[in-house]
Amino acid sequence: MKISSFVHFATFGVKTILFRKKLPILGTVIVTDKCNLHCKHCSVNNITAVIHPYEQVRREMQELYDMGIRILFFCGGETFLWRDGEKTLRDLVIEAKEMGFLIVNVVTNGTHPIDLPEADLILLSLDGDREHHNDIRGNTYDTIMNNIANATADNICFYMAINQINKDCVAHVCRTARDTKNVKAVSFNFHTPYPDTRELALTKEDKKKCCDTIEQMMKEGAPVFNLKSAFPYLINNSFPTPCHQCVVIENGKISTCGRCIDVPDLCSECGYFFVAEYTLLFRGNIKIIFEMLRTYLKYI
């Protein structure tokens, strides 16, 4: 991370903590909800299957920038399906950098060729070993691993959503992240149970076991892009929600924290590690502050 970026984020953090501000710093643009997969745990794919036009996406990027957001995510659906004429996802990432965003990340299912060296991180969904990943996402594991091997930069971070199907695969994904070329780290979430996927939700005991495994893998040198200080809050769902420092914009609509905020009572079952980490950070949790500093400086 550049020194200028670090100073900007540090200043934002200090002001937010001292003055209890609720201004956002992280924003996500949903470029499409169209997806080539139909994953068992996903509730937001192909609802409209609309690929939003370039001018609209650019306006939304500018709107987020004008709000003070400096960490930008492009998300879907499947982001690599986005195209408008000759413009592709890569053009959006380059333009976001030119616009002034300090960190630009992309979320993908990894089934498309990965040629995006301009992104700071590509969060790529890997949901277990071959058997369990394919059970959730269809026969895609080998395609994804081949695309990772042929990626044009080492900016990939595995992004695993832990649920009842793959809860015993955490250590495997940690080791795969450690041992795979072009992969910098792995980031975890617990399944957030939308009404149509409630059967995949983890129990408190499941979460405790998963966090114990993640912590053990950290001790063994696995490159985990999460903060162990947040684990007790995630296990007990005792972190504050929603996260006012994060927003999502989709087809002109801005939602605080994420799209799931509109689902009644779902915040109380939130499984997003970043929500726990950011809300605790901006409440001034000392352990979280120092652990986030070490983690972000290491992987971004």
In CATH, what is the class? Answer: Alpha Beta
CATH architectural designation: Alpha-Beta Barrel
Specify the CATH homologous superfamily: Aldolase class I
Strand order, sheet with most strands:
8-7-6-5-2-1-9-10
Alpha carbon gap, first and last residue:
6 Å
Notes on the structure:
The strands form two sheets. This protein has an eight-stranded mixed β-sheet with strand order 8-7-6-5-2-1-9-10, with helices on both faces. The protein is built from ten helices and ten strands. The longest helix has 17 residues, at 3-19. The radius of gyration is 18 Å and the shape is globular. With 300 residues, it is of the alpha/beta class.
Overview features:
300 residues, alpha/beta, 10 strands, TIM Barrel, globular, eight-stranded mixed sheet
Write the layout of secondary structure elements.
Elements: H1 3-19, E1 26-30, H2 54-66, E2 71-75, E3 83-84, E4 87-88, H3 89-99, E5 103-108, E6 121-125, H4 130-137, H5 141-149, E7 156-162, H6 170-179, E8 183-190, H7 204-219, H8 231-236, E9 246-250, E10 253-256, H9 273-281, H10 286-299
Parallel strand pairs: 1-2, 1-9, 2-5, 5-6, 6-7, 7-8
Antiparallel strand pairs: 3-4, 9-10
Helix pairs in contact: 6-7
